[in-house]
Amino acid sequence: MNRILLVEDDEVMPKIIARILPEPEYHVDVAVNGKEAMQKLEDNNYQYDLVITDIMMPYANGFEILSKVKTHNQEHPIPVIIVSNAGNEDMIMEGFKLGVDDFLKKPIIPAELIIRVKRLLMKK
Amino acid sequence: MIGIIFENFVFVYGLAMLFIYALLALLSNIGVRLFKKRSHYTDYSLLLDSPLTPGISVIAPAFNEGVTIISNVRSLLTLNYTRFEVIIINDGSTDDTLQKLIDEFQMVEVEFAYNERIITRPVRKFFKSTNSAYDKLLVIDKVNGKSKADASNAGINAAAFDYFLCTDVDCILEKDTLSRMIHPFLNEYQNKTKEVGEPCPECGYVHIVEDSTRVIASGATLRIANSSEVDEGVMVRVRPPSRYLPRFQEMEYIRAYVLGKMGWSMINSVPNVSGGLGLFDKEIAIKAGGYDHQSFAEDMDIVTRMCGYMLDNHMKYAIRYIPTTQCWTEGPPNLKVFSRQRTRWGRGLAEIITIHRRLLFNPRYKQLGMVVLPYNLLFEFLAPIIEALGLVSIVWLVLTGQINWPYARILLLFVYLYSVMITTLALCWDQLTYPYYKTTKEVFGLTLMAFLEPFIYHPLIVFYALRGYWFFLIGKKTSWGNMQRQGFAPKKPN
Amino acid sequence: METTLSDILQEIRSIYYYAPLAIKIAIIFIFIAVTATVLAYLVMLRSRYRNFRQNRLLRKMLPIMDDLLINEIITNPNIPQDVVPSKVALNLEPFDALPLHRRWAREMLTARIIHYRNNVSGSAGDLLRNLYLQLDLDKDAMRKLKSRHWNRKVEALTEFTLMDMPISDVTILPLANSRNRELRAAARQAYIKLSKNEPFKFFDSVTDPLLPWDQVELFRIITTTTDIAIPNFARWITYSSNKSVVSFCMKLVVHFNQLAAVPAIIRLLENRDHVLRADAIEALGRLKIAEVEDKLVHLYTSQPLFCQIAILKALGRIRSGRHIDFLRNEFLHSTDFDLRKAAARAIVKNEVMARGVIDELLSTTTGENLLILKHCMNPLIKY
């Protein structure tokens, strides 16, 4: 089973992702803001196979979560995908500077997300 | 004889004031409805990924805010916008504000090319984060200048973008504040603009300047945060203050913003953009000289000077307000703090009128000289004086038995009900903008204040305003001098 | 003693009759004030009730709608993969569970479909659009388009644009000439997105300025619509007399990296309008047109400050390394702070080629200039 942490403050995306990445192959844990995401990461001792995060959220933004995830285990960092509706050049650059593995802009193509998720999980 | 003149003057004056309030109520209603219509089809989130989005520098001075600084800065860093930076000016705090920032955000001192276009007290150090997740944050450490104005000026000097949002570290901002407040700058209607210009002495070209309206500032409604639930700088549940004094202020703020400023905004005569939340055109703010660190009403002062600058240079300008609440601020919880704040405002107003008397009733200064300043002189500044005189003359009439009680009662009832009406309308427009409180009971708890205000709250305000004028007249200094926090007194709504 | 309402009215009337003018006015306004206050209360109650009802409905309906949209449309395995999504005949039966005969339900579903289309695209997005059509949800917007109120028309146009609904040119064109500015702007966007003929036609005719906000909206539409042919923007850059169109077209040229339009932009360097010239310089810099560098350097001295800054920035973006001496000179000898900073930044951006100059400057300059140089070299400082 692949444990995925999804950080997203809108309710629609989690519903879609839960459906296209179904149990029991995947387990999607949803955090609705940055604070909750940090909490979940701590509580589960970073035992996630993948993190999918939005950028703009209350308490802590996606970049902060990304940098936290990437600095936690630098030998085998958890792969991170950013899925955001804000995606100008600056933000994409900033994401890659912090080591994001993939950057998808909303609206996403569900099939594409599945492929990218699978590829990152396989690499791991 | 004097009595008759005074009576007639007061009668005309009163009618004019009531007429202006009615006009503002009408104009603000049009404004609120237009805003509602627009918000049905305006997608503010377009600004989140457009390369055309203008950059904004968020400037927030902090003085001894160690307890809350981290969550408040976090809250500013998570504003929903793409091109922005957050500049925190540590105004010589004597507590651990600076150290907390350095530790939490992994900051290091950097050599920063600082261009002191507005003179301030010396700036000591600059800090940037080594973690690029916080690369929007800049912390400036500065010698205390005993005023928010001085700290803000240092922030303006260091700002990288063309627009700056002036706020306080302890203000709670809505996440969409930047996109909503920049919108009026981008959407100011322009007629086909004509080109004006004179030959340039340097190059001989005729420099073409477009004769278009430039939005130089925008503002939004502020509310009192006292009883709302706030979690780490994020507004969780909005409530009207439970205690009477802050609740009166909430009512007053809503009336001043949703009815007052919105109304003035419709005829482009906004007198003041609150120091708690205002978005400004940096170029004009700097050219107008920045904030005056000696002023008791630096927010109104800078707006007046910016308008004056635009008019002196024959440029058309606009200041726009939006009716939605974007900012929550802590209002004075007790009479002691409240009296200090209002006395300061009274003094500030007297000061503004005196400093800018050159513009007053000067037709060259268009709406500024003929509407904004005269209104502030006649109806904001003089009102407390006239009310006090009125009270004295009524007491005298009563004592000498000259009063016609039936008619007096009718007049009093009229004035009372009219004031209740205006306040209720303001609260109504506010509810139409957005249903801020969860329960209807809370709304009516607030409307109750409209009925109590003339007896309890209003006399207080009049008294403190007069005290402020008195301090202004005698040039009293002492009580402010040693009180460092005075610069961070909450923001003025009117 | 009993007083009835009519007694009171009688009393008031007699007071009113004998009162002087001021009192008469006061009495009238007492009535107005009471009425207005009561009305305000009623309006507040009504608006709160409406919000309450709307929220209750949303809480009830949204989960149902979400399930339907996700299970029946987005992830339905029964939808054939080999048919074009817009041609699939959807099974509409499950949607009978929604009270779509009511307008509020249709509006709610439409809003939800639009929200979903902001999150998913590709075939899922097309299927959602297909659903919108098959459920006849476009009829409401069609009606709105004929409304007397301009804001309703704008709402309809926005909906059509978001749903990618073809509308005939004859419907849109009159609106694009409307007297209401916001309606005009919305109609232009709809035209670009939806017109099958010449989507950019209005660039020729528009006379009022495209406001920055219009440009943000247009930019999004032009850059995200996949099936419009992007014309050569040089046409408007050269011939349009509307400056906002010229400046907007340059931004589009940069976005599409349309090198064919470069000569037209270079010609703008002779333009009398400073703002336009600065825009042209910026565009050339972003396009990294190395051939234009000499010309920019040549123009430099005769330009106003903000054009000079634009030139320095452009040299930093082009990064050919051929004008480092010029930049060095500006950095050392300019009196203006912003010019020196822009020059330093441009030098630093020339990285490898400027290595020698940077080392030399670091060891020879002092004071503010050294500070500026270090500021620009510090990777922690972005601006």
Describe the structure.
The complex is a heterotrimer of chains A (124), B (494) and C (383). Chain A is 43% helix and 20% strand. Chain A contains 5 helices and 5 strands; from the N terminus they run E-H-E-H-E-H-E-H-E-H. Chain A has helices at residues 12-20, 34-43, 62-72, 89-97, 110-123; strands spanning 2-7, 26-31, 50-53, 80-84, 102-105. In chain A, helix 2 runs parallel beside helix 3 (62-72). Chain B contains 14 helices and 14 strands. Chain C has helices spanning 5-18, 21-74, 103-119, 122-134, 138-145, 150-163, 169-176, 181-194, 202-205, 212-224, 234-239, 243-256, 262-267, 274-287, 293-299, 305-318, 324-333, 337-349, 351-364, 367-377. Classes of the chains: A alpha/beta (124), B alpha/beta (494), C mainly alpha (383).
**Termini of chain B, distance in Å?**
36 Å
Helix content of chain B: 40-55%
Helix content estimate of chain A: 40-55%
Overall average residue pLDDT of chain A? 90
Count of individual beta strands of chain B? 14
Please give the structural blueprint.
The complex is a heterotrimer of chains A (124), B (494) and C (383).
Chain A lengths: L1 E6 L4 H9 L5 E6 L2 H10 L6 E4 L8 H11 L7 E5 L4 H9 L4 E4 L4 H14 L1
Helix pairs in contact in A: 2-3
Chain B lengths: L1 H40 L14 E7 L6 H9 L6 E8 L5 H8 L2 E4 L12 E7 L7 E6 L5 H11 L4 E5 L4 E2 L3 H10 L8 E2 L12 E2 L3 E11 L4 E3 L2 E4 L6 H23 L10 E5 H6 L10 H15 L4 E13 L5 H21 L10 H34 L5 H29 L6 H13 L4 H18 L3 H4 L13
Parallel strand pairs in B: 1-2, 1-6, 2-5, 10-14
Antiparallel strand pairs in B: 3-4, 4-5, 6-13, 7-14, 8-9, 10-13, 11-12
Helix pairs in contact in B: 1-6, 1-11, 6-11, 6-12, 9-10, 9-13, 10-13, 11-12
Chain C lengths: L4 H14 L2 H54 L28 H17 L2 H13 L3 H8 L4 H14 L5 H8 L4 H14 L7 H4 L6 H13 L9 H6 L3 H14 L5 H6 L6 H14 L5 H7 L5 H14 L5 H10 L3 H13 L1 H14 L2 H11 L6
List its traits.
heterotrimer; A: about 120 residues; alpha/beta; 5 strands; about 45% helix; B: about 500 residues; two-stranded antiparallel ribbon; 14 helices; about 15% strand; disordered C terminus
Quick description:
Chain A is α/β, with parallel strands linked by helices and 124 residues long. Chain A has 5 helices and 5 strands.
